[in-house]
Specification:
Blueprint (H helix, E strand, L loop, with lengths): L10 H19 L11 H7 L7 H7 L5 H13 L2 H30 L8 H18 L4 H4 L5 H23 L2 H15 L8 H10 L9 H4 L2 H16 L1 H13 L2 H18 L20 H23 L1 H14 L22 H12 L7 H22 L5 H11 L4 H13 L3 H14 L4 H11 L11
Length: 470
């Protein structure tokens, strides 16, 4: 007899139906993203970057940091189709990630035995599908999908989740080759973006909450082969002059103490992004925090209590613990010790959001044989609302003027936003609007040399072509 968790009534069609739903939902929500243009960092890392204009140019540039990410850009440029080609690939990556999220949550739901044994099939499918849809359709994901340069987050997530799934299945089935594949996928993720480095910790988290191991030994939970890959990657990074320069620049931005204070505020901001769709912002320009305040103390206490709760519940309620710790785990590379020039960006939530999505799905679907009645209505309403919000959020990326108008409206303290808005106005021939925007940028940041130069060029009639990214 087949395992109880595999539905027999509809065979393969039943198993493939949720995947079809996932792909269709992503395609519908991001249908209007295909027509969006290049934005912000796109000009610097894609349009005006000679090393990604063709596969041959990419090959000649090696060795380089993030080579697989740059290879994807080179392939897009070689195939043509302009921005639309880049957007189509970004959407395809997100659709694959949404399916991987569904598969991961399915294994998590099965492990926690969500529902009564005789009806576990329906409930596992429902809970996993709902959690994956929340991950796929939340509008905060647009920065990693519709914003072309956000591909670094989504492509790294693809390899990271595939690595985790290969590990889970390899351990469950005793297949050594799957463990090896998991390590290879992990290495690929590191070649896309350094944030993939937390994969070994994600595997440790999975093993720590596995109820099938009553008292798992610490050493048995450590993915040693992944730790070896990570160690080799660290040696390569340390020996790279490019990485050394990036680390030096990063730590010159602010001290570790100031960065930790700043990131308390940043993580609280990101938590708010999960429910405040009205303030989604591609360049929020949060301020650096250097001193304690009452508000910051409250935020620190709340985050610390949440983190402690996640640790305490690892064995008692692993279903909740996984969601909490997964969230903090995937924010750790960007929102902890290492300073970043930009304090926070929405795309940092790309994989982290799967934790809260899982908790919401579990709360809605874990106490009924299937989602039905008021909970079903709430789940459908939530999914549709997120999809509609994502569709509308994509419109912000239509062109540079719309993009920077949205940023400036939501972050009126952001001088860079007004400079870039002025630049976009100037290229569109809106000279008066450009001058107003440049002067506002200088009011916010009088020492910004780039804005001063842009304003002078505008007044002299020289700001007519794009010499480089704004």
């Amino acid at each position: 007899m087949p395992p109880k968790h595999i539905p027999e009534r509809n065979g393969a069609a039943w198993r493939w139906a949720p995947i079809a739903v996932m792909v269709a939902a992503v395609a519908a929500a991001y249908a209007n993203a295909v027509g969006a243009g290049f934005q912000f960092d796109d000009w610097n890392v894609i349009v005006d970057e000679p090393r990604v204009q063709s596969v041959a140019a990419w090959w000649a540039s090696l060795p380089a940091i993030r080579p697989l990410l740059k290879l994807s850009y080179a392939c897009n440029n070689s195939l043509g189709f302009g921005p639309a080609g880049f957007h189509l690939l970004n959407i395809a990556i997100h659709a694959i990630n949404s399916v991987l999220a569904f598969l991961l949550l399915t294994r998590l739901a099965l492990r926690e035995n969500v529902g009564s044994q005789e009806r576990v099939d329906n409930r596992v499918q429902a809970v996993a599908l709902l959690g994956a849809l929340l991950f796929a359709l939340h509008p905060v994901q647009t920065e990693a999908v519709t914003y072309i340069s956000g591909r670094s987050s989504s492509l790294a997530a693809l390899f990271s989740m595939a690595s985790i799934l290969a590990w889970i299945d390899g351990r469950a089935r005793g297949r050594t080759w799957l463990i090896g594949l998991s390590a290879a996928l992990f290495a690929a993720g590191l070649l896309v973006k350094e944030t993939s480095a937390v994969v070994p910790l994600a595997l440790f988290l999975w093993e720590s909450g596995n109820p099938q191991q009553a008292e798992p030994k610490l050493l048995s939970r450590i993915p040693w082969i992944h730790c070896l890959v990570l160690g080799l990657a660290a040696v390569i990074a340390i020996s790279s002059s490019t990485y050394r320069h990036l680390f030096n620049t990063s730590f010159q931005a602010r001290g570790v103490g100031a960065n930790l204070l700043t990131q308390v505020d940043a993580i609280s901001y990101l938590l708010g992004q999960l429910v405040r769709f009205d303030r989604l912002n591609a360049d929020p320009a949060l301020k650096v925090v250097t001193t304690w305040t009452a508000a910051l103390a409250i935020e620190s206490g709340a985050l610390l209590l949440l983190l402690i709760l996640g640790v305490i519940l690892v064995r008692r309620r692993p279903v909740v613990s996984f969601g909490i710790l997964w969230f903090f785990l995937w924010l750790a590379p960007t929102n902890s010790f290492i300073p970043r020039l930009d304090v926070v960006n929405d795309r940092q939530l790309y994989l982290a959001i799967l934790g809260p999505a899982w908790i919401v799905a579990w709360l809605l679907g874990s106490r009924l044989p299937t989602l039905r009645g008021p909970r079903l209505a709430l789940a459908i309403t939530l999914v549709l609302s997120l999809g509609v919000a994502t569709y509308h959020r994509n419109q912000v990326y239509a062109n540079e003027i719309v993009f920077w108008e949205d940023v400036a409206r939501k972050a009126p303290h952001n001088g860079r936003a007004f400079n870039n808005l002025g630049y976009a106005y100037a290229l569109a021939g809106r000279r008066d609007d450009a001058e107003i925007a440049f002067r506002q940028a200088l009011t916010l940041d009088p020492g910004d040399v780039r804005t001063a130069v842009n304003l002078r060029l505008l007044l002299e009639g020289g700001l007519t072509v794009r010499p480089g990214p704004p």
